[in-house]
Design a protein that fits this description.
single chain; mainly alpha
């Protein structure tokens, strides 16, 4: 995907270069057809170009802010789920045996599935498969916690255990739903189209001077394409070059697996 993003960035820059050339030639063609005062229409081209570039900058900033907000939300959800899993394991360790051992063992399987949820990238078939496994383990955890809390000496933990368990399940569901929260395709299409049209306006505005200023304009088009590709990367955190850090989850996974490793060998189970 990084290679695809780079290819798209270069292609967009090349398309803008071609659009600028088309604008340049269109101006010269139109100018040649005017028999009188061919320079009359050239005076205001600079103002049009400035307005187009200014509006393009605002449009890029607007779409970028949307993508950045979605990226930040996904990052917060990773942290929220990591905190919820850590709290759940801490509370489960307060429950009586054999329920404590069963829950910790199940959580060891659960965190492995949650790691796989990110590792499968944007393959939605595999994502749905990991969510099905997640829900199956959630049912095991919920049922086991319910049985444990029915024991008289554990009933004082009912509210906190149910709360942290619900938070853990909700965090997993929210991360799944966040996959569909993206910058609208229409916004990206308009942004790309506007960048190409602006390039054509630039070529048209440079034509009166008789020079294309290829190096400087190509550099500007590369920067515009890079900004748009960054928006796309931010909006595709699983497969782009800008990833949502999974460090909080990795730390929690290590903690849970270390806790499960301390269980008696006979107590360790493998759940679906």
């Amino acid at each position: 995907m990084i290679g695809a993003t780079l290819l798209g960035w270069i292609m967009l820059a090349l398309i803008q270069v071609m659009a600028a050339e088309a604008g340049y030639r269109l101006h010269n063609w139109a100018r040649a057809r005017r028999k009188e005062n061919p320079d009359d229409e050239d005076e205001g081209s600079g103002y049009v170009l400035s307005a187009a570039l200014g509006l393009l900058g605002l449009l890029i900033a607007f779409v970028f802010s949307m993508a950045a907000a979605h990226h930040e939300t996904r990052r917060d959800l990773v942290l929220r789920e990591a905190d919820a899993i850590s709290s759940a394991v801490q509370h489960y360790q307060l429950l009586p045996e054999p329920h404590r051992t069963v829950l910790i063992s199940t959580m060891a399987d659960y965190v492995k599935v949650r790691r796989a949820f990110f590792d499968v990238g944007d393959d939605f078939d595999k994502i749905d498969e990991t969510m099905a496994r997640t829900e199956a383990l959630q049912e095991v955890i919920w049922n086991e916690a319910g049985v444990a809390l029915a024991i008289p000496q554990a009933q004082r933990l009912t509210v906190p255990v149910l709360n942290v368990t619900s938070q853990m399940f909700d965090s997993a569901a929210l991360r799944y739903e966040a996959l569909n929260v993206k910058v609208p395709d229409r916004a990206l299409q308009v942004l790309i189209l506007y960048a190409v049209v602006t390039a054509a306006i630039m070529g048209h505005g440079l034509a009166p001077g008789g020079r294309r200023h290829f190096t400087s304009t190509a550099g500007l088009f590369l920067l515009i394409a890079l900004a748009i590709s960054l928006v796309i990367d931010l909006d595709s955190p699983r497969v782009g070059s800008v990833h949502v850090s999974q460090a909080p989850m990795e730390r929690v996974i290590k903690q849970v697996l270390a806790t499960a490793a301390k269980l008696p060998p006979a107590a360790r189970t493998s759940n679906p």
